[in-house]
Amino acid sequence: MQANTGGLRVIRRNPDGTVLDFPLSYNGIAKGTQTPLILQAQDIVYVPMSKVKAMFSSTQGIITEAASAAIIAH
Predict the structure, then answer these.
(1) pTM score
(2) Could you report the per-residue pLDDT of 11-67, keeping only the tens digit for each?
(3) What stretch of H or E contains 53?
């Protein structure tokens, strides 16, 4: 998983056009210390990508593909 669970947010537009932004704690919800937010229609759940995890995952994928190609080439 490449998500940065520390930056979860729910963005909600009210009928009057105003926008609400709710920061969420994934760890807090998982541990029971934060009440989960009940999603409504049209809510946007924003989960940022962890650049470090994405870079590691991409590098690992390239190494795996290169190793597979090397095995097939022999």
Answers:
(1) 0.57
(2) 999 999 999 999 988 888 889 998 888 999 999 998 888 655 555 555 555 555 555
(3) helix 51-73
- With a CB cutoff of 8 Å and minimum separation 6, the contacts of 13 are 19, 20, 42
Residues β-bridged to residue 10 = 22, 45
Q: What is the rounded CA–CA span in Å between residue 36 and residue 14?
A: 19
* End-to-end CA, the chain: 33
Edge-to-edge strand order for the sheet containing 19-23? 19-23, 9-13, 44-46
CA 5 to chain centre: 6
